[in-house]
Amino acid sequence: MGFLSRLREDITATREHDPAARGTAEIVLVYSGLHAIWAHRVANRLWRIRPMKTPARVISQVTRGLTGIEIHPGATIGRRFVIDHGMGVVIGETTEIGDDCMLYQGVTLGGSSLEQTKRHPTLRDGVIVGAGAKVIGPVEIGPESAVGANAVVVKSAPDDSVLVGVPAQNRKRRQEEHEPLVDPSAYALDPALFI
């Protein structure tokens, strides 16, 4: 996938996950989650080149100051990843995030060890993590799972789980919980704004 195609895909994913998004120009100019993801992609490419690790960390820290979102340049992030609002989001070095995942403000994907090993979470495709939630350690959250607001997850969870509480308990996600809470089409403006 080319550079411009990836940018368009990010913008579309943001629009689809945020019914308040009014157009491409607004998304590109003011969505700090999108800015943090774009900066991470640059930092991550540099991180993979041994002598460029320090510049990668500099980009990460400058982005943190500008957006309030800290993504370690070593984190692996899939396609169509959305950070909504974003202030206070922290994503650790060995975190792995699949495609079509979404995080809300105040989420921590943190480590639980000082060892140089896999010490941060893995979120499989389609995982949503609610505001203020903490997912700690090398746990794996199965595809299409949802982590509730302010939950503290310290154990892995299977596909289609809902994780709530401190410490988080999981249960199978019900069919109606896959439906969006808000119909994005109810907020649609002139389709020309999205071109």
Can you offer a commentary on this structure?
The chain is α/β, with parallel strands linked by helices. It has one domain (3-171): Hexapeptide repeat proteins (UDP N-Acetylglucosamine Acyltransferase, domain 1), CATH 2.160.10.10. Helix content is 27%, strand content 18%. The chain has four helices and 15 strands. The protein has helices at residues 3-17, 24-30, 32-47, 53-67; strands spanning 70-71, 76-77, 82-83, 90-91, 96-97, 102-103, 108-110, 122-123, 128-129, 134-136, 140-141, 146-147, 152-153, 161-164, 169-172. The chain has a six-stranded mixed sheet. A five-stranded parallel sheet has the order 1-4-7-10-13. It has a four-stranded parallel sheet with strand order 2-5-8-11, with no helix packed on it. A hairpin with a 4-residue loop joins strand 14 (161-164) and strand 15. The chain is globular. The model is unreliable at 186-195 (pLDDT under 50). It comes from Garicola koreensis.
Short summary:
By secondary structure, this protein is of the alpha/beta class. 27% of the residues lie in helices and 18% in strands.
The count of domains is 1
- What would CATH call the architecture? 3 Solenoid
Number of strands: 15
Overall radius of gyration: 17 Å
Largest sheet: 6 strands, mixed
Q: Averaged pLDDT, please?
A: 89
Residue ranges: pLDDT <50 for 5 or more in a row?
186-195
SS-derived structural category: alpha/beta
CATH superfamily: Hexapeptide repeat proteins
The fraction of residues in strands falls at 15-25%
CATH class: Mainly Beta
Distance between the termini: 20 Å
